[in-house]
Amino acid sequence: MRTISPIAPYNTVNTFRHTCSGEPSATPILSGRLRAWIGGTKGHTMPLYLSRFSYTPETWARLIGHPEDRAQAARSYIESVGGKLHGFWYAFGTHDGYNLWEAPDNVSMASVALAISGGGALSSFETTVLMSVDETLDALRRAEQVRYRAPGE
Predict the structure, then answer these.
(1) Burial of 65 per CB tally in 10 Å (0-12, 13-18, 19+)
(2) Alpha-carbon distance 117 to 123, whole Å?
(3) pLDDT tens for each residue of 30-47
């Protein structure tokens, strides 16, 4: 599922969201800053993606009984489509964890997201396409060429 959010400096444009409820939504992220943190846009030839996930209670119970490094599994999923895992973190809060991926294209990343979402271990999985500051500035410049008309005008 793909939705478009308003374009603003440091925000995202595309969000893939997979949840048990199945409702898509767009969530802004500080993507430009994140990309700068991992080295800017220089040298990155593939798009970057940020995933947020939450495990089901049953998955947490299985991990408590048999702890394992799930980063290794995540790495194998993205490498199977020619991508790279840049990071895997667990967190407090709304989501249990975050992944930073690099994939050849949106279809490759979507195939990984769909495979993971369909596995049943997660209660939610959201993947956001990240844009660099340069890409956002380019989009802002191109936005002048779009002749938007507000509803009812």
Answers:
(1) exposed
(2) 8
(3) 344 444 444 454 555 799
